[in-house]
Design a protein that fits this description.
The protein is globular and about 90 Å long. The protein has a 6-stranded antiparallel sheet with strand order 26-27-28-34-30-31. The chain has a 5-stranded parallel sheet with strand order 9-8-7-18-17. Strands 24-25-29-33-32 form a 5-stranded mixed sheet. The termini are far apart. It is α+β, with helices and mostly antiparallel strands. It folds into 4 domains: 90 residues, Sandwich (Immunoglobulin-like), CATH 2.60.40.1760; 203 residues, Alpha-Beta Barrel (TIM Barrel), CATH 3.20.20; 106 residues, no CATH class; 155 residues, Immunoglobulin-like (Sandwich). It has 14 helices and 34 strands. Helix 10 links the parallel strand 15 and strand 16.
Length: 669
């Protein structure tokens, strides 16, 4: 933030996409995160969290100073002393809760669009990308699949959807479908909710109910349910996911379980009081810049009336509106295991502190322009700080018409976002990778690299879920003083000088990728699905740092098996911690299984690659736990010019739980 000027930042959850094209956009977006980190002049960091769910705003200005305002609720402040940025985030996550661990397949590439006119249109897009060899794990169905945009239904043009889902599963793919929370009040899902005594957001009193609208719907006629307008053709009710009983969440889970039971006039607009005694919450004395920056609007614009009742009538919507996306994500996160018996991933556009415990986040309805590609880098970093490491932008841009070069570059970047998905809007031209041969080639290269290092990315998510670490780091053309190695094919293994470097980024090659010395990264050969790649033997990349050991870890589990009681400490898994040291006489690579479950059967570790190893080893002198091993010399080599060592052998090192520890030692020639 620029603290040389006065800037007001309103926070009030609103359905509006980011405006990266403006020089300075301060509009309130989908979520609310009243947390900031400050880095002082001496490099030390601290953080501050203000827990409040009402409309609020922050003013930043010279001094520097920060002014905080809220128009309701309570102020619960927490301070995090750091002193490093990573420690600030870790302390914050200990306060709000650690992130969830997504299913392994959810780290694969995902392809979505709003505007499939039919199931056949979706099949065409998925098939052409598979034919082009694009790695793909998750096709999406947006709200097009619904019958008139009614949740838990299928439209006439989507006949055969269940069979196609099974076909995708047989290919090792997984399907994600998009749901909106609003439920039309004249079909079976709503009736089942009423029967189950599910709670919906309601009017505060009977005399506030607009019977000219309400009485059109027999199911809602004698209720206080506040009827709104979203996607369905007629009026909708909004589930009260803050229900103090379990009824609403139980009904929501039941609707997922009954997905394939489909059932089937114009809607009237919701009107909230803007004068008289009932307008107090709609027009508070100071409605914040969330209202002032938009002429003719109120706090209830694009949402429900603030006087609505939530938490089974114990709270005003005025106080809980910012919690709605959080509460829906929590309800859906709890529902999926009941339906599938497996772990999955929930993606929410609206978030609040601790949303990362229940799902990930996409950065909203961005636009197909270079500015949005640039700001998506910032967004991914920010949401890691907010405790939501499973995050990414809509690759190629959601709104507007994308183009070949932008889509190519965005795929090169998007392959390195924890959540990697191409998505665009209704009425826009197709922008999946197979549309352009050059984009297909670039996507195959970038996603192939991503899939190669998915074991590393999954291990990062495990460390975030168990220890509260961040999951994303980005290095631009400036290299801090350290040892850096290139992973680009043209300069693979080459050391980079500290400071600014000119880095080639051709359209037809891998995105510039560099790894710091002193680390050990696990990987597996890439296939076009994570289902297949998880079966391949493991490899590790070791990067040598002068006069220092290298370290890293590998996390492996069933991929999508449930975590007992949401407690990762009870989860069957293997978690290996690796170390590598070297000297003028040789090297030692060792592993210790920090947590080992016999129920988990990981592949063997077959290949070890070391960058920056200064001497040729004696290939006949390798010993594993004191016993000589025979290497596959067709895959083992040493290049003196690049100081790159590769050793490989089939079924080289067992990573099964019974092993617990291993030591691989070798001497130099």
């Amino acid at each position: 933030h620029n603290l040389d000027r006065y800037t007001t930042w309103p926070m009030f959850a609103r359905d509006i996409g980011p405006d990266s094209g403006s020089a300075l956009s301060t509009q309130n977006l989908y979520g609310v995160h009243p947390f900031y980190m400050c880095i002082e002049a001496d490099g030390k960091a601290h953080g501050v969290f203000i827990l409040n769910s009402n409309a609020q705003e922050v003013v930043t200005g010279p001094g520097p100073h920060l002014q905080y305002r809220t128009i309701g609720g309570r102020i619960d402040m927490a301070f995090f002393p750091g002193p490093t940025p990573e420690e600030v985030v870790n302390q914050y996550l200990q306060h709000i809760g650690f992130p969830f661990l997504p299913a392994y397949w959810a780290l694969g590439y995902q392809l979505c669009r709003w505007g499939y006119g039919s199931l056949d249109a979706m099949k065409t897009v998925i098939s052409r990308n598979q034919a082009a060899g694009i790695p793909l794990d998750v096709p999406y169905a947006d709200i097009d699949y619904m019958n008139h945009y009614e949740d838990f239904t299928e439209g006439d043009n989507w006949s055969g959807f269940p069979a196609y889902t099974q076909q995708l599963h047989a290919q090792g793919l997984h399907l994600i479908v998009i749901f909106d929370p609003a439920v039309e009040v004249d079909y079976a899902s709503f009736q089942r909710g009423i029967t189950a005594d599910a709670s919906f957001i309601e009017w505060a009193r009977d005399d506030q109910v607009p019977h000219s609208i309400q009485d059109q719907y027999p199911m809602a006629k004698n209720t206080r349910v506040m009827l709104g307008n979203v996607w369905p053709e007629r009026n909708t009710a909004f589930p009260d996911f803050l229900d103090t009983k379990s009824n609403t969440n139980d009904w929501w889970a039941g609707e997922f379980a009954q997905f394939h039971k489909t059932e089937q006039l114009a809607s009237a607009k919701l009107s909230c009081p803007i004068s008289g005694p009932d307008s107090t919450l709609e027009r508070p004395p100071y409605p914040t810049q969330a209202v002032y920056q938009r002429d003719g609007e109120y706090l209830f614009s694009k949402t429900l009336c603030m006087l609505g009742k939530t938490a089974r009538r114990s709270r005003n919507f005025y106080d809980t509106k910012n919690l709605y996306g959080w509460s829906e994500a929590r309800a859906t996160y709890q529902a999926i295991p009941q339906v599938t018996g497996k772990r999955s991933a929930v993606i929410s556009r609206s978030t609040f502190p601790s949303s990362g415990r229940y799902g990930g986040h996409w950065l909203g309805d961005n636009t197909a322009r270079w500015e949005d590609l640039q700001t998506s880098v910032i967004g991914v970093m920010e949401f890691n700080m907010f405790g939501i490491p499973y995050v990414g932008s809509d690759i190629c841009g959601f709104n507007g018409v994308s183009n070949e070069e932008l889509c190519l570059r965005w795929h090169q970047f998007g392959a390195f976002s924890p959540f990697s998905r191409d998505h665009n809007s209704e009425g826009m031209p197709d922008q999946d990778p197979a549309v352009w041969p050059s984009v297909a080639t670039a996507a195959k290269i970038a996603l192939g690299f991503r899939y190669y290092y998915l074991p590393y990315l999954y291990s990062l998510h495990y460390n975030a879920a168990r220890y509260g670490h961040t999951g994303q780091s980005t290095v631009h053309a400036y290299f801090p003083s350290d040892t850096w190695y290139s992973l680009q094919p043209e300069t693979y293994g080459q050391k980079m000088f500290a400071g600014f470097n000119d880095v080639n980024a051709p359209l037809s090659s891998l995105t510039p990728v560099f790894v710091r010395g002193g680390f050990i990264l696990p990987r597996q050969a890439a296939n076009t699905t994570t289902t297949a790649s998880r079966l391949n033997p493991f490899e590790v990349l070791i990067t040598v740092k002068t006069n220092a050991a290298s370290s890293g870890d590998l996390y492996y589990d069933g991929g999508d098996d449930l975590i007992p009681n949401d407690d990762i400490e009870q989860h069957p898994r293997v978690h290996w911690q690796f170390s590598f040291t070297s000297s003028i006489v040789g090297g030692v690579f060792s592993g210790s299984c920090e947590t080992c479950s016999t129920a988990v059967k990981p592949p063997t570790l077959d290949t070890i690659e070391i960058l920056g190893y200064p001497s040729a080893p004696n290939f006949s002198g390798f010993k594993l736990d004191g016993s000589s091993v025979t290497l596959d010399m067709s895959k083992s080599s040493y290049e003196a010019s690049t100081q790159k060592l590769i050793v490989s052998s089939k079924n080289f090192i067992s990573l099964m739980a019974l092993k617990k520890k291993f030591t691989l030692s070798f001497s130099n020639n």
